[in-house]
Amino acid sequence: MRIFKPMFVAVLATVTLVSCGSIKNLEVPTMDTTVTIEPKKGAISEEQFNQWAHADLVTDTIPGMSLDKAYKFLEGKTGTPIVVAVIDSGIDIEHEDLKDEVWTNPKEIAGNKIDDDKNGYVDDIHGWNFLGGNGVAAPEQLEITRIVAKLNPRFKGKTIDDISDDEKVEFEKYQKYLKAYEASSSKHFKTMNRLVQIGENFAAIKKFLGKDNFTIEDLQAIKTEEQKLQAQIDDILGLMLRGLDEKAYLEYYETQKKNKNYDFDFDGRAIVGDNPTDINDTNYGNPYVIGSVEDESHGTHVSGIILATRNNGIGMNGVATNVKLMSVRAVPDGDERDKDVALAIRYAVDNGAKVINMSFGKSFSPYRNWVFDAIKYAEKHDVLLVHAAGNDNKDIDVKDNWPNDSSDKINEFADNVLTVGAISVNYNEKLPATFSNYGQKNVDIFAPGVQIYSTIPQNNYAKYSGTSMASPETAGIAALIRSYYPQLSASQVKHIIMNSGTKLNMKVFKPTSRGQEPELVDFSTLSVTGRIVNAYNALVLADRMVNKR
Fold it and tell me: What pLDDT sits at residue 516?
């Protein structure tokens, strides 16, 4: 049985056109978009799966955003070009499916080493790189690592008996931070120890056989009474039978050795040259926004979701049209710095972005007030921020997740931030992504975020999963609304998306860690709205707000 009831709970009575000023004062009504439908039976084709996020639940029985239906609604309408900023890792702005959508600063002359537009950023033609370097990766610590590293000289190895009364409060905080660091890092260090062990096992077998290369058959033929060697042979044989050879092992090991998330001694700012604890130290970074095309793909993937060129016969279709991409590189391979995030938001606002996508987050934020101030600055200038809820399958009404628009997890200090959780293609109890954060107060809505097909560097494409993908799906809808209905404010666009999402009255598994027993809950308890984003409904609601009263 299919029930689809697009109707307003709050009736819009008049049909007269209203002025832009009065439109911005209109309260956003709520749409009743409840859908009850049987799950899709049979397999989804590869083509359908690559674009499942754009599907329509009623027509396709896939819990997508009704994007094709939205574009039919827009036929005959004209949009206004707008700028969307993506604060992320490096972005391959030369990608075949992105290069035609790249924002160019009209007030800057490329390569003359002069700040032509006097915005404080020299030669910022396509955006700004707050991480420094040109074409190189940006490894970085996690915030918890930086916090513990800063406190280690004062407290490492000490007990409460060694601490003066004046420092006991700080010491207790240190112990709390150290415990969090150890919990976060334990898996990484266990993995590194295991990789070292595998390397030693490969080396022992080579020495025994007297050759550098060996096969599964070679291992199976070995006869030895030495227990340690036999254990090493059994270990490597088991790996090789599962398809892991030494080349694959070495590639993975080298990747893991680059991970500086838990390295107390690493200085991720050496290449940048600023003081990350001084918000007034702003003379840093450069205009090279691509970063490392070998090591950074996240920002390119996010950007493609929002605005990859539509209907060009290659790759994939982004959500939005009439949109230009402002690239703001501020997210390293580790936790972003609060200072970079705050300045990145301000940069995007000052240079004309109307929507900012922020697919990043962390559990600790020592300079969060800088980011709070930047969010308020964006609100003052009518800019919408779309933020990924995070991938720790935790309740962020209880657990910290930064940045956000509430210092106490209860009261919002701004009304221009939209926080997005992730759903899967499964229209059943497995609808929420197992990794997605949730929260009935602090996650606003859900969007497709599992196995999302999009652009990655060097003209390639791939499927990634994360609330990092759900956020740009939503940002793309926001960009469409701001393009076709520029009279609406950032706050109104936020609430249009929230109030028009598809309402699902169904039981689902609450996101949990692997190995935990899944708990069935009402989908409505996982977010403010209990909805998934819907482009068609959002545009219908925006249209009625602008053209009827």
Answer: 86
